Amino acid sequence: MLNHTRLKFADTNDDAVRLLAFGVDALDDWLESQPQDVQAWVKAQGFKAAEGTICTVPADGGAIAMALAGLGDAQSRARGRFPMASIAAKLPAGTYQLVSDHAADDLEEHALGWLLSQYAFEAYRAQPPHGARLVCPDGVNKDRIEAIAAGETLTRDLINTPASDMGPNDLEGAARTLAKIHGAAITVVTGDDLLAENFPMIHAVGRASATPPRLIDMTWGDEGPTLALVGKGVCFDTGGLNIKPAASMGLMKKDMGGAATVLGLAHMIMALGLKLKLRVLIPAVENSIDGSAYRPQDILTSRKGLTVEINNTDAEGRLVLADALALADETPPDLMICMATLTGAARVAVGPDISPFFTGDAAFADALRAGARQARDPVWELPFHDPYEPLIEPGIADLDNAPKGGFAGTITAALFLRRFVSNSARFAHFDVYGWQPVAAAGRPKGGVGMGARAILAALPKAMNL
């Protein structure tokens, strides 16, 4: 799933066509510096540098002398991102060299947007690639952008794959492949061994499936600060005995989006050789129904020893994450990050395009916001609101997995997870969607990474790398 050769830059700029990108406000000044025939041609084509528009300027003999790309006005640029992604799809086949005096962050956005525009999910149907290729722009770190694109590709491919081919065993296989590529160590606890190894809630959620539940544990790196990434790997979620209606179950192949995101982020970290010690934990399960399924009103005892009353079997993600978080917390990392497609309430709050996050660490939050701006990967901080703690305490057990009332569902889920992190001083939780509902520049409809690029950009400052 990392072999997308189309998501790489062209190897050479020999005979590459110059590609000039303009905002509306810069076009007139450039035109004034051009020969009369170029000015006449561009004006005749009606090119105004509107966002996503192109104009190819011919040379003698009919070849393309140069290509112009429109970036729109300031308002359109502020409203969108990856404008070069829509440009790449419209240009004629060939190799292009971006000529620009744009700021470094803008050039990185253009370069990454171009690569992401080449993505296509081809596991079940071949799709023709775009014919236009880009030479990595001067001043842009080619290896870094290609590593980010490859990590995003891995995330998208994993989410897009249906549960028939992406069950807990397949997710394990993807993690093993990634570990082999980067020389990481990996161990997996499966089936009833979860009980023997004290992961009772992972076992309870996944035991009704024909494919046994498991906990994937991957480690990499031998120097630097420690980073733990914990990703929700619910490969399909029927809702359990509190079964989902059909409309809600239709996209549940993406309920392992947290696991897919941390694996994509792990690839970026390892491919770039960041000087840190990485641990990736993924509880991989299917929330299915049979005679052994866990039930509403059951009380489960977690790895940490906290008891949990089950008031809805469709609030299973926080249960499997709790055991994984408790394991990570036993050898506290310098920073622990949890990523999960956890609550519909998060989508109601911020929609499908923004990654809400929770943290008690102001320095990490500041680094993350700066990283999000740099990486064009929007995030928004929500609070660990302590006055809501009583909502997750049912009285009959330590915790309630599905508080009644329906208010603040994203926050109560985050508070639930925080109960299992008592030794690690720095903890962040992301409630991501993992799905692009409508195609946009660089983001076709389907699985998508959220938050990973922002985290990657934040790590050097957040962890003193």
Automatic annotation (TrEMBL):
One of its GO terms (cellular component) is cytoplasm. One of its GO terms (biological process) is proteolysis. Keywords: Aminopeptidase, Hydrolase, Manganese, Protease. It comes from the Bacteria. Residues 312-319 form the Cytosol aminopeptidase domain. GO terms for molecular function: manganese ion binding; metalloaminopeptidase activity. PROSITE patterns: CYTOSOL_AP. Gene3D superfamilies: Leucine Aminopeptidase, subunit E, domain 1, Zn peptidases. InterPro entries: Leucine_aapep/pepB, Macro_dom-like, Peptidase_M17_C, Peptidase_M17_N_1. PANTHER family: LEUCINE AMINOPEPTIDASE-RELATED, PEPTIDASE B. This is Leucyl aminopeptidase.
